[in-house]
């Protein structure tokens, strides 16, 4: 009963947001009247264990409670997220196939020729999370601070290497953002993934890496690699002793790993609004909040309109970084 009231109230709100001829509105929203009536699939276009996957699995219990249907996580990795994203772009716009993706969604068009349009073929539901990158370096590197690293890079142009989890990954563009903002000449070394990048940072084979905080924080605490700075505008509570990059030599620096959820472009607005509220409800659970913060992630829900604006803004910035780095869609 509570769930049905929750759904009814949301559909009523959707009608208020989109006024028009009663018959036309009823026809437009009619497919959602008994929604959902079968299991729902959330496609994660990456392997299990990444931030979009962790976030999605944490909120599944809350989604099941709201929708009273099975919600399945379907990991479809490959091609930098393109394979899974394409599945959702081409799915029926009936509310039964969703995409939970990282900021790679906004990066993809600048490094690959995609079989879909990042902005036109998806309907945004909500931003999901925000997480800092942690700028890390080998313990053997002479640089002890961000300022030291920048000074070293400027003294040895083209001689320092920075790792990433692959060309076009969030870690790659976080590194490019640092390179661009600090005005340094450093060489990008792409790896197969985050573990390989951290292995070579630990061994001292590359000089720095903008690592996901959840993957690197324990290595810093154990003294195996050095944490120089966090990429967000504010310090991260889990590593409060590590300064921001902005306060350590690159004023105004602010770059985060963020996630979002989408549906196929022509999904009825009432269903989009329903999911926006459902995700907000699920992520507000205290245990979910605690578990996200424990791995350096913060819930960051938004309206669909705010997500659309974020994607547009990020694509403009990423386009600038891609051009500066000489990257073109392959």
Distance between the termini: 52 Å
**Helical content (DSSP H or I, runs of 4+):** 40-55%
Number of strands: 10
Q: Report the sheet with the most strands, covering strand number, pairing sense and barrel closure.
A: 10 strands, mixed
| Cα shape | globular
The helix/strand series, from N terminus to C terminus, equals HHEHEHEHEHEHEHEHEEHHEH
Q: Estimate what percentage of residues fall within beta strands.
A: 15-25%
What's the structural domain tally? 2
Report what the structure shows.
Helix 7 packs across helix 12 (304-325). Strands 1, 2, 3, 4, 5, 6, 7, 8, 9 and 10 form a ten-stranded mixed beta sheet that branches. Strand 1, helix 3 and strand 2 (71-75) form a beta-alpha-beta unit. This protein folds into two domains: 2-130 and 256-325, D-Maltodextrin-Binding Protein, domain 2 (3-Layer(aba) Sandwich); 132-248, Periplasmic binding protein-like II (D-Maltodextrin-Binding Protein, domain 2), CATH 3.40.190.10. Residues 1-28 have low confidence and may be disordered. It is 43% helix and 19% strand. With 330 residues, the chain is α/β, with parallel strands linked by helices.
Question: What is the structure about, briefly put?
Answer:
The chain is an alpha/beta fold.
Key traits:
2 domains, 330 residues, alpha/beta, ten-stranded mixed β-sheet, D-Maltodextrin-Binding Protein, domain 2, disordered N terminus, globular, 19% strand, single chain, 12 helices
What's the structural blueprint in terms of helices and strands?
Elements lengths: L1 H16 L4 H8 L10 E5 L6 H17 L3 E5 L6 H8 L7 E5 L2 H4 L14 E17 L7 H10 L5 E4 L5 H13 L4 E4 L3 H10 L4 E5 H9 L3 E6 L25 E9 L4 H15 L2 H9 L2 E3 L4 H22 L5
